[in-house]
Amino acid sequence: MLIRAGLEGISLTHAGAFWRKAAGRGLIFTLHHVRPAAPQLTQANMLLTVTPAFLEQAIQTCLKAGLTPLALRDLPERLSDTRDRHTYVCFTLDDGYRDNERFAAPVFQKYAVPYTIFVTAGFVERTRSMWWETLEALLARERAVDFDFGDGLQRFRVDTAARKSFVFDRFAEFIEQSDEDEAVARIDAYARKCGLDPLSLVDDLTLDANDLARLVRDPLAQIGAHSMTHVNLKRVDDDRLKQEIAGSADAVERYIGVRPSTFAYPYGFASAVGAREIRAAEDAGFSLAVTNKPGMLQADCLNQPTNLNRVSLNGTYQRKRYVEALLTGIPFKLREAGGANLL
Ligand SMILES: [Zn+2]
Questions:
Q1: Domain span(s) for CATH 3.20.20.370 in the chain
Q2: Sequence-ordered alpha helix ranges (H) in the chain
Q3: Mean of the per-residue pLDDT values of the chain
Q4: What's the CA-to-centroid distance between 95 and ligand 1, angstroms?
Q5: Which fold has domain 2-125+209-332?
């Protein structure tokens, strides 16, 4: 409600010159699923899904606001040009969903807007499950879940939307607090027991290497790296960190024949990306890397090009006026100032 009230109160017309600086040099949007509205999704996964119509509205709003669409990989060159006065918008899509090609690519093509899809090698190669998708599928079909989170076997009823979201959040907490590989393996094992194959689900949902090779024939499409297994990088040791980052660059190069220059940190929030990870992405040779720490591209963002902010196009707020509010940069300024926390 607070987010809604805050974003409703801000629009470009009310922004004024005082706030114009907040908009910086533009912004990078994060998307995940782009697909027609699904009626039954847990709260957490609803956030990660927007409709093709809303994507189109967001693009129109950006163009109307005077932002220039740009491929993410071209950002360093443009922003380092001191004569350049443009403000830019880059569209990025994480995790490599099939719906990106089916529903988002035609919208990007209609407006000639470049886009970057960040892919995780373990998903492309069907060797790693997506725990949030496994849970979504499991919760959609079960009426109760039996699981041991560490205090013995417990039974959770999941027969209403609210109960499904509650149990989803309990599993997300379990992932965050356990060894992530082990937690994912436990969820996989439980899903299999219920007759659900987590890797078939990855195959249903995400693009494989052949799909990516086809997709990049579209000059608007770029592929970036998004780790090997989508673990929280802050929680792995130095060797694994290096392997997750550099290994995923090698993998993308194998899929499309071109080494990616861009990387997106899995999860991307502050508890998943720190100074060590930012340095590791730079050491692996990426010219830029994106987080999901919310904010605009400020004039000095190239001082740390492997620590760029992104703004999530949130499935819960699929309204033009929210996009207009985000483009002002004001919600992020207010947040920095410790005032109303709108995001
Ligand atoms: Zn991701």
A1: 2-125+209-332
A2: 2-9, 12-20, 43-46, 52-64, 75-79, 98-99, 105-110, 121-124, 131-141, 161-177, 180-193, 198-205, 209-215, 238-256, 275-283, 320-328, 330-336
A3: 91
A4: 5
A5: TIM Barrel (3.20.20)
